[in-house]
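Hello again, I could really use a second opinion on something today. I've been staring at a protein lately and its backbone has me curious. Please have a think about how the structure follows from the sequence. I owe you a coffee for this, so here goes:
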Amino acid sequence: MKEIISEFFLETVGKELCVLFCSMLPIIELRGAIPMGAAFGLPWWQTYLIAVIGNMLPVPIILLFVKSVLNWMAKCRVRFFNKIAAKLFEKAEKNRDKIEKYAFWGLALFVAIPLPATGAWTGTLVAALFDMKFWRSLLSALIGVIIAGIIMTLISYGVVAAFGALF
């Protein structure tokens, strides 16, 4: 069944759009999309460009709307939403000094680290919580995404090339 679903998705949407959509997803982002593109046999430069673009597409939306959504969640009658909002605000406050000290480059470095929960989604959420300026946050996230993309491309395509040489 798994093969049928994946085959249908690949044939219907195509490899390139699979990489684009994967890079737009929180947590996975381009950290999962670039290895996917390598596994699909797409050229490294194409995978890199698609993944960076896909990873950056949600960033302006997050920067513009996430704080309003979190404020709504904090005031909402649904306890689950209250807890999530409170936890995010609490965590942000706890790290306020470090974040404000290293703002622009700290955000770029945080986004650049290719580990789960350190990508553009989380980085721009933090930027929005601290009311960082929109264009400054966008540029910082872009720098981080570009660096993360380079790291993941080198890892993914280096591994693919190494295994390809073995077989």
